[in-house]
Amino acid sequence: MHLGLIGYGNIARTLLKVLAQEQAAISALTVLSLPEFAEGVEGELATTFPASARVVTRAEELIAAGPDLVVECAGHQAVAQHATAVLRAGIETLIVSIGALADAGLYAQLTRAAHEGGSRFLLPAGAIGGVDILSALRPAGISAVTYTGRKPPMAWTGTPAEALVDLAGLTEEAVFFEGTARDAATLYPKNANVAATLALAGIGWDETRVRLIADPAVGRNIHEYSVTSEVADYTIRIEGKPSVDNPKTSVTTVYSVAREVLNRLREVAI
């Protein structure tokens, strides 16, 4: 497989390590980087993919390289800037920053581009599990999906939560957001991709309810959601260990992305 990456941050680096560990048959790698980081990325890749890695700074160059699959792992802005062109060029694209799709206009734009290019965009489960059950239940009728995201206070730094609660001084849990998945994904783009995934798999952005909590008593990113449907009710709770390099992200996110890539390389996909 010729793999393309949009961005080369913590998720991309860890993804490549997992793929190498699993001996994935990656024959070539093309990375789309911001110009100011391109030289550093080239230097790093020279030691990990010395014979087959290339760094580019424009989406046109990524497309021209002809990857079989492109993985976006650079944030909401990168989805808006680059995913449309890649999809229109007929290249299957895995979108990690799912919260970007809360923008209805962007979602429609990507869908049109995929149709025009005969491609599709894929949405990994990310830090949460049970998305297959949720999506499967949709035709049967789902009446409620409620998600609670609980993280250590410092995982919420750099977000609007800082203006709502004293993160550094918390001695007990603080619920600082209650609302729709659309608002959660828009206000907390680096923290609420799980809410976005559940919304798209289930009953939609404005019907999926979300609570976000800063809790000094926990040291992990805890994702819990409950589903009420016509044929089954269930609750799933996952305590994900935060990434050392980016505490806003659960390590399980990277393994979910790796699974999507590996399933395209193996004889049996599960």
What is the structure about, briefly put?
36% of the residues lie in helices and 24% in strands. It is α/β, with parallel strands linked by helices and 270 residues long.
Largest pleated sheet: 6 strands, parallel
Class computed from helices, strands and strand pairing: alpha/beta
Number of domains: 2
The CATH C-level class name of the largest domain: Alpha Beta
Mean pLDDT across every amino acid position: 94
Helix content: 25-40%
Describe this structure in words.
This protein is α/β, with parallel strands linked by helices and 270 residues long. Helix content is 36%, strand content 24%. A six-stranded parallel sheet has the order 3-2-1-4-5-6, sandwiched between helices.
Note the topology:
Blueprint lengths: L1 E5 L3 H12 L6 E5 L2 H14 L4 E4 L2 H7 L3 E4 L3 H13 L3 E4 L8 H14 L3 E2 L8 H7 L4 E10 L22 E7 H7 L5 H9 L7 E6 L6 E9 L3 E8 L10 H13 L7
Parallel strand pairs: 1-2, 1-4, 2-3, 4-5, 5-6, 7-9
Antiparallel strand pairs: 7-10, 8-9, 10-11
